[in-house]
Design goal:
The chain is of the alpha/beta class. It folds into two domains: 17-46 and 293-390, Aspartate Aminotransferase, domain 1 (Alpha-Beta Complex), CATH 3.90.1150; 59-291, Aspartate Aminotransferase, domain 2 (3-Layer(aba) Sandwich), CATH 3.40.640.10. The protein is built from 15 helices and 13 strands. It has a seven-stranded mixed β-sheet, sandwiched between helices. Strands 1-2-11 form a three-stranded mixed β-sheet. Strands 10-13-12 form a three-stranded antiparallel β-sheet, covered by helices on one side. α6 (137-145) links the parallel β4 and β5. α4 runs parallel beside α12 (276-291) and α5 runs parallel beside α6 (137-145). It binds 4'-deoxy-4'-aminopyridoxal-5'-phosphate. 4'-deoxy-4'-aminopyridoxal-5'-phosphate binds next to α5. It comes from Phocaeicola salanitronis (strain DSM 18170 / JCM 13657 / CCUG 60908 / BL78).
Length: 395
């Protein structure tokens, strides 16, 4: 065996949890991603999804994807720069730019490759990139790919952000990158304060609205819209894999920034363009956001109901202000165990352990969709109380 096999053969952590019967990953679903999914011949309530609008099995979106596949085929066989640009890619870019309130947008094949491809093109040697220490992995990778000086501040600590800004050369580009809704903890970035600091230190702000679109702002325009700070945010990115019921991502900004990225973001230029089906699905979902505001209202009704119920039952849920509800466990083994117990009771939730959180902050992530019912939430919370008590996480 080679050196690589020798080294990787020592990686036994997954097997350790498999042997204990609590390995929680890659569980197979053989139905649509809805509030109820089929797994191994039984129904499981889905509280581990990012489909906040509950649109992944919407008939209109399915039909749009089928029609696009019939017209354009199953793939584009090339990058946006060369043979891979369809009229529907451009249409979606125009609609997204208008939706989030920016001049122009670019659509990528995944949200991950937006952050990975865009961030390193915005800052170079002598510049600075400043991130919240809970930013998404794709932002971390984008940051690592840049040649700028990399700075981090403690989660949502605005004094700590200001201290980092004070370290920077005044004439260098200072790019602040944050998630608008933190994907595991469900709390919001303090965008009004970030904008104040941006102005004070002449910085640039990039906001990841992956979990904000659909959920916050007018007709789901996002957290920037919710706080009324869109014009002061330089770049807004989003994904299609959550509220938009598809896959793909975009970045929106003013004309000059987009013109630069269109010709320099490597995952835009060198990655094959998004499929016709995914693109048409995202366009249709975006229209539905605007035509059916009741989806967003339902999401908030059920979210507020669940937040209240979890609090009353004594769960530790941190500072969440969104449909992402972290149920803190603060122990990796117990996080896996409670995920498994809940699954056996018919409730799908996601374990969150390092590097997705700090070691002392392990949690299970309970996420809501606009289509969840009160009965489904009651059922899940009852089961979770039982499981958390069984493991003495809840008294
Ligand atoms: N940003 C954030 C905050 C995310 O949570 C995710 C996905 N979980 C991404 C970016 C990447 O998006 P996608 O999965 O659509 O590629």
């Amino acid at each position: 065996m080679g050196l690589l096999q020798d080294k990787l053969g020592k990686y036994r952590i997954p097997q350790m949890y498999m042997e204990r019967g609590v390995y929680p990953y890659f569980r197979e679903i053989d139905s649509a991603q809805d509030t109820e999914v089929m797994m191994d011949g039984r129904k499981v309530l889905m509280f581990g999804s990012n489909s906040y609008m509950g649109l992944t099995y919407d008939e209109r979106i399915i039909n749009a994807a089928i029609a696009a596949t019939r017209k354009y085929g199953t793939g584009c066989a090339g990058s946006r720069l060369l043979n891979g640009t369809l009229d529907i890619h451009v249409k979606l870019e125009k609609e997204l730019a208008e939706f989030v309130g920016k001049d122009e947008a670019l659509c990528f094949s995944t949200g991950f490759t937006v952050n990975e491809g865009v961030i390193p093109q915005l800052v170079g040697r002598g510049d600075y990139i400043i991130c919240d220490d809970r930013d998404h992995a794709s932002i971390v990778d984008g940051r690592r790919l840049s040649f700028a000086t990399q700075l981090k501040y403690k989660h949502n600590d605005m004094d700590a952000l200001e201290k980092e800004l004070q370290k920077c050369e005044p004439d260098a580009i200072k790019l602040i990158v944050v998630d608008s809704v933190f994907s595991m903890e469900g709390d919001l970035a303090n965008l009004p304060e970030i904008v104040r600091l941006k102005k004070k230190y002449n910085a640039t702000v990039y906001v990841d609205e992956a979990h904000g679109l659909g959920v916050f702002g007018r007709n789901g325009r996002g957290v920037c819209d919710h706080f009324g700070v869109t014009k002061d945010i330089d770049l807004i990115m989003g994904t299609f894999s959550k509220s938009l019921a598809s896959i793909g991502g975009f970045v929106a900004a003013d004309k000059d920034i987009i013109n630069w990225l269109r010709h320099n973001a490597r995952s835009y230029i060198f990655q094959a363009s998004n499929t016709p089906a995914a693109t048409a699905a995202a366009i249709e979902a975006l229209h539905i956001f605007q035509e059916e505001p009741e989806r967003q209202e339902n999401l908030w009704k059920i979210t507020n109901y669940a937040l209240k119920s979890f609090r009353e039952a004594g769960f530790e849920i941190g500072d969440t202000a969104s449909p992402i509800i972290p149920l803190y466990v603060r122990d990796t083994d117990k996080t896996f165990e409670v995920t498994k117990l809940a699954f056996d009771e018919g409730v799908f939730i996601n374990p969150v352990i390092p590097p997705a959180c700090a070691p002392q902050d392990t949690l299970v992530r309970f996420a809501l969709m606009a289509t969840h019912t009160k009965e489904q939430v009651d059922f899940a919370i009852d089961k979770l109380i039982k499981c958390f008590k069984q493991l003495h996480i809840l008294k």
